[in-house]
C-alpha cells in the first residue's frame, strides 16, 4: 500500500527551543495517529542564516572567530536543553565552517558557490539536533540529506549568484523517491529546507525563505495528502496583524489568492512555494507552532467561492520607482524595448509599469533586485541616453487582494476616499484581476493600510471565510467600552421617559463624569476646552462647567448661550474658533476678553484696525486630515480651514505691521479619530512652526477629534497611548501649554435617542421598521453613513430573529437610521434605542417636513428625570 504522505515544514523560530521541539514531536505523533507518514522539513535556528551570511564577510576581514562563536552557542544551548551531546553531534559541521572561514580569509573573497556551502550548514545542524532529539523521544526518525532528494533545474540564462543562491528544482511526481521513502523503516523522515544540489552535485540554495519551497517540492514529488507550514503566526490575515491587530484570520484561500498575497508582501508564505502544490492540488495548511490548537489558514482548490471580494491588504516597502519622461520620443518605434533592455543589462527585474503619453514609470522590488545607490546611479545614467530618468523612493506598494476586484470598484469607492490626502505615484490592476495596487510614499503606507483596513474590514463579523481578529486571539481586551452600557442598567427609567416624552434624546450624567475622568488620565494636557457644538444641553454644559473645563465656541450663538447659562464664567475659560466669520464676530469676541483664534490672513488685511495690538491664536492646516468621514476631516487639500504653513512668513509680516501678538497656535485635523499618535503629531507640527516663526507662542491647541468606538465590544481610542505620545512631546518641548478641544469623546456615549415604532413593512423581501422620528432628529447616518447601535429597549433580552432596515418618517430615501440590523420580533409601540447619540445628535436636528425633532431629557446621576426641555429653547438665537 502506498503511504499517505504529509509534509510538515517548521521555520526558524519553530525549531529554536526545546518547547517548540516538544510541540513538533506531538504534532508528528498526531499525524502518525491519523495514519499519515510525516516528512519533516526544517529551517536553521533563528538568526543562524544571518550569522552564516555574516561569517563569510567577517572572515574575509579576518574577524571570523567571533561570528563562529555566535553560531556555535545557540546550537550548543539547544542541544543541552535537549539533553544531547551537541558538541559531538555537530563537531564535523563546526570544523567545516572553520575551514571555510579560514579559506575565505586567505582568498579574500567568497564566491556564491562557497556562500551556498556555508549557508547550508544552518539547516544541516538544526536537523541533526532535531533527529537526535526525536529519536531520543522514541520517534524512529531517519535524518535524510535533502541534497539527495532535490535537484535543481539548470537555468542557462541565470547568472552565477542566481544559480547558487536562488535556484529552482524539478517537482514532478517522483515514484522512485516515493518507493525509497516508503521502504524506509522509520516513523518520520527529517530533512532540510532551503538547500538542494545541482547536476554537478554541488550545494545550492533556494533563496531566502526557501524552506517553504523545499517542503512544497517534496509534497509534490511525494504527491502528499497535504503540506503543513508551521510558523510563528497562526495563518494568513486580512492585513499584517502585528501592525493591525483588528486584522482577521483568513480561514480559506485558493491558490491564486494565496500566491497573490505572498507576492504582494504578506511574509507568511514564500511566493515560490505555491506553484508546486497548486499544480497537484495539494492542500496547504498554515499553522502556528506556538498555538497548534488554532485553526490556521487552508489554501486549497476547495476554498468557498464568495464572489467578488477583497480578502486582504498587503504592503511591500523599500520600493524604488524609476520615472522616465519621454517627451518627443513617444511615437518612436522601440522606445520601450530600448529602455527595458537597459534594465535587463543592469540585471534588474521590473515589477509594476505605468505608461502615459509622455512618461513611463516602473517599480523595482528590493526582494527581486539588489539595488544600492551605485547601481541606481548607473541605471539612471544609462537610461539618460533615451529619456529623462529619475528615481523616486523609498515607496511602498499597497495592494488590495481578492477575486474579481474589477467588479468591486463601485463598492470600493468609499474606501478610496482615503486616498484623497495621499500622493499616489502609480496604480496598477493586475491582469489576473486578483489585485489592485497603489504606490505611495513609504512613510504613508502604514497609515494608509490602517485606514483602508478600517474601511474595508472594520464592520465585518467572523464567518466561514473570515475568522477571528488577531486581537481576539491574542491581545488582552482593553477595558474601553463597559461590558454593559448605562442604558441597560437604566432600562426601566428610560422606558418610562419614552412613554412620556418620545421621541427624545436622553443624557446620562454618570457617563459624562466617567468620560471626564477618563480624559483626565491624559495628564500631558494642561487645559481642556469642551467643544460645545457636540452637545450644548444646559445640564451637560453644567457638568463640564462644574468640573472646571473651558469651552470652545464657534459662533456668537454659542457664546451667548454660554454667557446666559454661566454669567460669571471667566473669559479665559472661553475660546472662540470661528471659520469665515464676519468682522463683528471678532469685535464682539475681543470685547469679551476671551481667547480668539484666527484662521484666515485676509481678515488681517481687510480689517487691520480690528486686530491691531491684539493677542490671538492662529489656526494652521497640517496638510493632512483625519476622522471617520471625509466631511469631518478638517485639514488637507480639500479643507477650508486654517492657514497653510507656506503663509507663515506673510503672517509674520502682517503681525509685525499690526503689533499683533501670536500667543498660540491651533490645529484641528478632524473628528472621530482613533489613531492615538494624532495629537502628538499635531503638537509637533505646531511646535516646529512656533520655533521657526512665532517666538511669543505659549499655547499649542491640538484640537479635538478624539474618537469613540461606534459599537459595543469594539476597542475605542487608546488613551494611554495618546498620553504617552503627548508626554514624549512634552518632555522635548516643555515650554508650551497644551490645549485640547474634545467634543464627541465627552458626550457621545452619554446620549441615546428613544423613538417608538410606528409601522412595520415587508416589501420585495426587505423588512422595514418605521420610527416616529428619523433624520430630522439624527442626521449622522444619512450624512456620514455613521453607525449607531440600535436595540429594542422594550425587549432588551429577547433574541434577535430578523434583519431589518430601521427608518424614519421623512420623505427621503436616505432617512434610514440603520441598515440590515438584527432585532428581535418587534411590534408597533415598542421603543427602539439608538445608542451613542450624545454627540452631534440634537445639535444637528432640523424641522424638515415640519416634523418636530426629538426633545432632550437629562438624567442626573441620582435624581429622577428632569423636566423635559424642548431642544429649540436650548439653542441660543
Ligand atoms: N475643535 C474644532 C475646531 C472643531 O471643528 C471640532 C469639531 C472640535 C474641536 C470637536 O471635535 P470632536 O472632539 O467632537 O471630534 N458632525 C460631525 C462632527 C463634526 C465636527 C466638527 N468640528 C459628526 O457628527 O461626526
Automatic annotation (TrEMBL):
EC number: 4.1.1.20
GO MF assignments: aspartate kinase activity; ATP binding; diaminopimelate decarboxylase activity
Occurrences of domain ACT (ranges): 324-397
One Pfam family it belongs to: Orn_Arg_deC_N
Similarity annotation: Belongs to the Orn/Lys/Arg decarboxylase class-II family.
Record keywords, A-Z: Amino-acid biosynthesis, ATP-binding, Decarboxylase, Kinase, Lyase, Nucleotide-binding, Pyridoxal phosphate, Transferase
Residues the record lists as N6-(pyridoxal phosphate)lysine modifications: 533
Pathway(s) this gene product operates in, as recorded in its UniProt entry: Amino-acid biosynthesis; L-threonine biosynthesis; L-threonine from L-aspartate: step 1/5; Amino-acid biosynthesis; L-lysine biosynthesis via DAP pathway; (S)-tetrahydrodipicolinate from L-aspartate: step 1/4; Amino-acid biosynthesis; L-methionine biosynthesis via de novo pathway; L-homoserine from L-aspartate: step 1/3
Cofactor(s) needed by this chain: pyridoxal 5'-phosphate
Name this polypeptide is given: Diaminopimelate decarboxylase
Active site as annotated: 811 (proton donor)
Presence of the UniProt keyword Transcription regulation in the record: no
NCBIfam families the record matches: asp_kinases, lysA, PRK08961.1
Membrane-spanning segments: none
BP GO annotations: lysine biosynthetic process via diaminopimelate; threonine biosynthetic process
Gene3D superfamilies documented for this protein: 3.30.70.260, Acetylglutamate kinase-like, Alanine racemase, Lyase, Ornithine Decarboxylase, Chain A, domain 1
Amino acid at each position: 500500500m502506498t503511504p499517505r504522505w504529509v509534509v510538515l515544514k517548521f521555520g526558524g523560530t519553530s525549531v529554536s527551543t526545546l518547547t517548540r521541539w516538544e510541540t513538533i514531536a506531538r504534532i508528528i505523533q498526531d499525524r502518525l495517529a491519523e495514519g499519515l507518514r510525516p516528512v519533516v522539513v526544517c529551517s536553521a535556528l533563528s538568526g543562524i542564516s544571518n550569522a552564516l551570511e555574516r561569517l563569510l564577510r567577517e572572515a574575509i576581514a579576518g574577524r571570523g572567530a567571533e561570528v563562529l562563536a555566535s553560531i556555535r552557542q545557540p546550537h550548543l544551548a539547544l542541544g543541552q536543553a535537549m539533553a544531547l551531546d551537541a558538541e559531538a553531534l555537530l563537531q564535523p559541521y563546526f570544523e567545516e565552517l572553520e575551514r571555510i572561514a579560514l579559506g575565505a580569509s586567505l582568498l579574500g573573497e567568497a564566491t556564491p558557490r562557497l556562500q551556498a556551502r556555508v549557508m547550508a550548514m544552518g539547516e544541516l545542524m538544526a536537523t541533526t539536533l532535531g533527529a537526535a532529539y526525536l529519536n531520543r523521544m522514541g520517534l524512529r526518525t531517519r535524518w535524510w540529506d535533502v541534497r539527495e532528494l532535490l535537484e535543481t533545474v539548470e537555468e542557462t540564462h541565470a547568472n552565477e549568484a542566481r544559480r547558487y543562491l536562488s535556484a529552482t528544482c524539478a517537482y514532478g511526481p517522483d515514484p522512485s523517491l516515493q518507493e525509497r521513502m516508503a521502504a524506509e523503516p522509520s516513523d518520520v523522515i527529517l530533512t532540510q529546507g532551503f538547500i538542494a544540489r545541482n547536476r554537478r552535485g554541488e550545494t545550492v540554495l533556494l533563496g531566502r525563505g526557501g524552506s517553504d519551497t523545499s517542503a512544497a517540492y517534496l509534497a509534490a514529488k511525494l504527491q502528499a495528502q497535504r503540506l503543513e507550514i508551521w510558523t510563528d503566526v497562526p495563518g494568513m490575515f486580512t492585513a499584517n496583524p502585528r501592525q493591525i491587530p483588528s486584522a482577521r484570520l483568513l480561514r480559506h484561500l485558493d491558490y491564486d489568492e494565496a500566491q497573490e498575497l505572498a507576492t504582494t508582501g504578506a511574509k507568511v508564505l514564500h511566493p515560490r512555494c505555491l506553484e508546486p502544490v497548486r499544480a497537484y492540488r495539494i492542500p496547504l495548511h498554515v499553522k502556528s507552532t506556538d498555538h497548534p490548537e488554532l485553526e490556521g489558514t487552508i489554501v486549497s482548490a476547495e476554498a468557498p467561492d464568495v464572489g467578488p471580494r477583497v480578502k486582504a491588504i498587503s504592503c511591500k516597502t523599500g520600493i524604488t520607482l524609476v520615472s522616465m519622461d519621454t517627451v518627443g520620443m513617444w511615437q518612436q518605434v522601440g522606445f520601450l524595448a530600448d529602455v527595458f533592455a537597459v534594465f535587463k543589462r543592469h540585471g534588474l527585474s521590473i515589477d509594476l509599469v505605468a505608461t502615459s503619453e509622455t512618461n513611463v514609470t516602473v517599480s523595482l522590488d528590493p526582494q527581486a533586485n539588489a539595488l544600492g545607490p551605485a547601481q541606481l546611479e548607473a541605471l539612471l545614467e544609462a537610461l539618460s541616453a533615451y529619456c529623462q530618468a529619475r528615481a523616486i523612493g523609498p515607496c511602498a506598494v499597497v495592494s488590495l487582494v481578492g477575486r474579481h476586484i474589477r467588479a468591486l470598484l463601485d463598492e470600493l469607492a468609499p474606501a478610496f476616499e482615503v486616498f484623497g490626502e495621499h500622493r499616489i505615484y502609480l496604480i496598477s490592476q493586475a491582469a489576473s484581476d486578483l489585485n489592485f495596487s497603489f504606490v505611495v510614499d513609504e512613510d504613508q503606507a502604514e497609515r494608509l493600510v490602517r485606514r483602508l483596513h478600517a474601511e474595508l474590514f472594520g464592520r465585518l463579523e467572523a464567518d466561514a471565510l473570515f475568522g477571528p481578529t488577531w486581537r481576539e486571539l491574542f491581545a488582552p481586551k482593553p477595558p474601553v467600552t463597559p461590558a454593559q452600557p448605562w442604558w441597560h442598567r437604566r432600562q426601566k427609567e428610560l422606558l418610562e421617559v419614552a412613554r412620556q416624552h418620545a421621541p427624545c434624546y436622553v443624557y446620562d450624567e454618570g457617563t459624562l463624569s466617567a468620560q471626564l475622568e477618563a480624559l483626565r488620565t491624559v495628564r500631558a494636557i494642561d487645559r481642556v476646552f469642551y467643544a460645545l457644538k457636540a452637545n450644548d444641553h444646559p445640564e451637560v454644559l453644567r457638568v463640564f462647567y462644574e468640573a472646571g473645563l473651558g469651552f470652545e465656541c464657534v459662533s456668537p450663538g454659542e457664546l451667548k448661550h454660554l454667557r446666559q447659562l454661566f454669567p460669571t464664567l471667566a473669559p479665559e475659560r472661553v475660546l472662540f474658533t470661528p471659520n469665515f466669520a464676519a468682522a463683528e464676530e471678532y469685535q464682539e469676541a475681543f470685547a469679551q476678553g476671551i481667547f480668539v483664534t484666527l484662521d484666515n490672513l485676509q481678515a488681517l488685511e481687510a480689517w487691520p484696525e480690528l486686530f491691531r495690538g491684539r493677542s490671538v491664536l492662529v489656526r494652521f492646516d497640517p496638510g493632512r486630515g483625519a476622522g471617520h468621514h471625509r466631511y469631518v476631516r478638517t485639514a488637507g487639500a480639500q479643507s477650508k480651514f486654517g492657514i497653510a504653513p507656506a503663509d507663515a512668513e506673510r503672517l509674520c509680516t502682517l503681525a509685525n505691521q499690526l503689533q499683533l501678538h501670536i500667543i498660540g497656535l491651533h490645529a484641528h485635523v478632524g473628528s472621530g479619530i482613533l489613531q492615538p499618535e494624532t495629537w502628538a503629531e499635531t503638537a509637533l507640527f505646531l511646535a516646529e512652526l512656533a520655533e521657526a516663526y512665532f517666538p511669543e507662542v505659549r499655547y499649542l491647541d491640538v484640537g479635538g477629534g478624539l474618537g469613540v468606538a461606534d459599537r459595543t465590544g469594539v476597542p475605542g481610542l487608546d488613551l494611554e497611548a495618546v498620553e504617552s505620545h503627548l508626554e514624549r512631546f512634552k518632555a522635548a518641548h516643555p515650554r508650551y501649554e497644551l490645549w485640547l478641544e474634545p467634543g464627541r469623546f465627552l458626550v457621545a456615549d452619554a446620549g441615546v435617542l428613544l423613538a417608538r415604532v410606528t409601522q412595520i413593512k415587508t416589501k420585495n423581501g426587505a423588512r422595514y421598521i418605521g420610527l416616529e422620528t428619523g433624520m430630522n432628529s439624527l442626521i449622522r447616518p444619512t450624512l456620514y453613513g455613521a453607525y449607531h447601535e440600535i436595540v429594542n429597549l422594550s425587549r432588551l433580552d429577547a433574541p434577535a430573529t430578523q434583519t431589518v432596515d430601521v427608518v424614519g418618517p421623512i420623505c427621503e430615501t436616505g432617512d434610514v437610521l440603520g441598515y440590515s440590523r438584527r432585532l428581535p420580533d418587534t411590534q408597533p409601540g415598542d421603543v427602539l434605542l439608538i445608542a451613542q447619540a450624545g454627540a452631534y445628535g440634537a445639535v444637528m436636528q432640523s424641522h424638515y417636513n415640519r416634523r418636530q425633532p426629538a426633545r432632550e431629557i437629562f438624567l442626573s446621576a441620582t435624581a429622577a428625570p428632569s423636566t423635559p426641555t424642548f431642544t429649540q429653547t436650548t439653542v441660543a438665537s
